[in-house]
Amino acid sequence: MKDWDKLFTSLETIDFSFGKNLKRLRAGAFFNTINKNDLILDVFSGRCDTSYGLQDLGYRIVSGDISLELLKINKRVTRKIQCSALILPFRNDQFDAVIIQGGLHHLDNFHHIQACLNEIKRIVKPAGSVFISEPGNTLAVTIWLFLIKKTPLWKVTSYSRKWHDLYKAEEKTYSLYMSNITALISFLKHNWILAVHKRGFVTEFFTLKKECVRKKPPISR
User: How far is CA 65 from CA 101, 149, 209, 217, in A?
Assistant: First the structure.
């Protein structure tokens, strides 16, 4: 298992993580866009935390992640596939919805972020939806990063030490993502219907629609 995978899995339990992730889905009004018959892809799923929460609620969910080791951890999730988010092994218009929770900020450059979102647009049905939650450029995040980078506060507790180590492991891609949030929002507005965009305490939420469901024009007589 890679160093980042070990740091991530030691930070939070699956039960705590999926509970937090379901709250984020509710904050982005994602549940208003799906029903139990929909097929949903949880990409960058890691240990399948979000997938497990949705599966437990009765949703049809597929977990996808590039790390086979992480996918193997949660044996309670039944549908899994190892895949790159840049080349998804799915048909066009296959999924009713896609979820990304904390995945985009792991990509190496903004071109890869765009490529990932274009792939997701390809596999989502015409009226499908996408939920994204990523770090927000908030005051709380700014203060926290300053404390763990510039002061010895991170040494105080086991939890803060794990956060410090995790941040150091992903500092490059995290910083790149944070510097491109404005460009990302512009990209989303030009390529998707941005149904919900809101900023929480430390997280930014996006709920996207591939296109509006258009009513059939009246038949001419």
Answer: 12, 29, 23, 41
